[in-house]
Specification:
With 76 residues, the chain is mainly β. It has strands spanning 4-8, 13-19, 24-30, 33-37, 46-48. The strands form two sheets. It has a three-stranded antiparallel β-sheet with strand order 3-2-5, with no helix packed on it. The chain has a two-stranded antiparallel sheet with strand order 1-4.
């Protein structure tokens, strides 16, 4: 795993994230998780294989964001 950090906040579900780049990250049981890299990705494809959390009112999602302070977010 090169330049990848994985943090887990609490024990519950299972997270398995796979990026279409040279590294694959296997998670651990957790409630909420975050995967980030020190590398920049200007284009490409990201794929996630995940199982939704059971129960109502629970949001299971995968999204990308920029952690840079003061960055210009793309207009939607």
């Amino acid at each position: 795993m090169r330049n990848v950090s994985f943090s887990c906040f609490a024990l519950f579900g299972f997270v398995l994230l796979s990026l279409s780049s040279p590294f694959v990250v296997y998670g651990q049981e957790c409630d909420g998780a975050e995967l980030f890299t020190h590398e920049n990705f200007l284009y490409g494809r990201f794929e996630v294989s995940m199982q939704s959390a059971p129960g109502s009112g629970i949001v299971s999602s995968f999204f990308l964001y920029n952690k840079d302070v003061g960055c210009n977010f793309p207009q939607e």
